[in-house]
Design goal:
The complex is a heterodimer. Chain A is mainly α. Chain A contains ten helices and no strands. In chain A, helix 5 runs antiparallel to helix 6. Chain B is mainly alpha-helical. Chain B is 61% helix and 6% strand. Classes of the chains: A mainly alpha, B mainly alpha.
Chain lengths: 237, 100
């Protein structure tokens, strides 16, 4: 009986769980009733998810209205690139684009909540990190698309990081240089530039973000060195 | 969303509670008498939680694990409005049937 109540959201179980189990003890559980319990539990979960998603979205829209033009630009470009990546029709790309969108909306919602409370600075830090994550995912979407899947094992780890943070880096030998990918990379570079300009202008200039960015930049430099050595070894052989 | 639709057990729950507080098992018996079919426990408690969320019913303090529920003033008003609308619909429908 307890197992069947697991279909229901936790808050619901905490409120109604005991009396619901008492009713199940009185009624007994048949196959039909078990199906009914599961069906309603799933519906309640879906309803709860739908409501919270709609609250998140409206919070996000409120926060978006209050953003400075620079951050509006960054978010618009993040959405745009996600749509472009979805249009390219790669499962991986769509998934990553979706993550970027979720990151953006969640970040906006956090910003919205941060307006009135004292934990505002912490929420701002969180949104900055989320935004950076979303933008990095966007960067990864485009750069990871370069080249064939067979050669992707190293590219999906190294090339995205290198290309995202050092836009002038050339792609790996043999990579596909289609215009859509170039366009994506330009968008990606614009986002990252926007992000770093945001940091420089102060609003997102928060220590954790700077530290995080520095670590990734250092990693990128290391990876770029490795890439160059791989390329030169390949040329020598 | 209006939790009272004619196909929704919410309406039957409100009618079942109209003459006093009842717990889940008693509500099921009452609904079976009213509608001719016994809803599943999930359906019943799904409706109870929605009605409580709308403020139409409220739990009665008890030590028993089987919590009784009763109508609130808002639930009583809502039920009365709904029954009135159904009554009008039934009257008009019956009149039109009689004229054809």
């Amino acid at each position: 009986m307890k197992l069947l109540t697991l279909f229901y959201p936790r808050a619901w179980r905490e409120r109604y769980g005991a009396e619901f189990e008492a009713l199940l003890r009185d009624e007994g559980v048949t196959l039909g009733r078990a199906f009914d319990i599961a069906r309603v539990g799933i519906l309640l979960r879906w309803e709860g998810w739908r409501l919270s998603a709609s609250r998140d979205l409206s919070g996000g829209i409120d926060a978006f209205r209050e953003l400075r033009p620079l951050y509006k630009f960054i978010f618009v470009v993040a959405w745009l690139t996600a749509f472009i990546s979805a249009a390219k029709g790669r499962d991986l790309t769509i998934g990553a684009g979706f993550l970027a969108l979720v990151g953006s909306v969640t970040g906006l919602n956090l910003l919205s909540q941060a307006r009135d409370d004292r934990s505002g600075s912490r929420a701002r830090r969180t949104i900055a990190l989320l935004l950076f994550t979303a933008l990095s995912i966007d960067a990864w979407i485009y750069v990871a698309s370069w080249g064939s899947v067979r050669a992707a094992a190293s590219r999906w780890v190294m090339q995205p990081l290198v290309m995202a943070i050092i836009p002038q880096t050339r792609p790996w030998p043999g990579a596909d240089r289609s215009w859509s990918l170039r366009l994506g990379t330009i968008f990606c570079a614009l986002q990252l530039i926007g992000f770093w300009v945001g940091l420089a202008t102060g609003r997102f200039g928060l220590p954790p973000v700077v530290i995080c960015g520095s670590i990734i930049s250092a990693l990128a430099v290391m990876l770029e060195r490795e890439r160059r050595s791989v390329v030169s070894n390949a040329a020598a052989s | 969303m209006d939790p009272l639709r004619s196909s929704d057990p919410g309406l039957f729950i409100l009618v079942a509670l109209a003459d006093g507080a009842k717990h889940g098992y008693a509500m099921l018996n009452e609904i079976e008498d009213l509608s001719g079919s016994r809803p599943g426990p999930g359906t019943l408690y799904g409706a109870i939680s929605r009605l409580e969320e709308h403020g139409f019913i409220e739990p009665v303090e008890t030590d028993d694990r089987r919590t009784p529920y009763r109508l609130t003033a808002s639930g009583r008003r809502h039920l009365a409005d709904h029954l009135k609308a159904m009554e009008t619909l039934a009257r008009v429908g019956a009149r039109r049937l009689a004229t054809t």
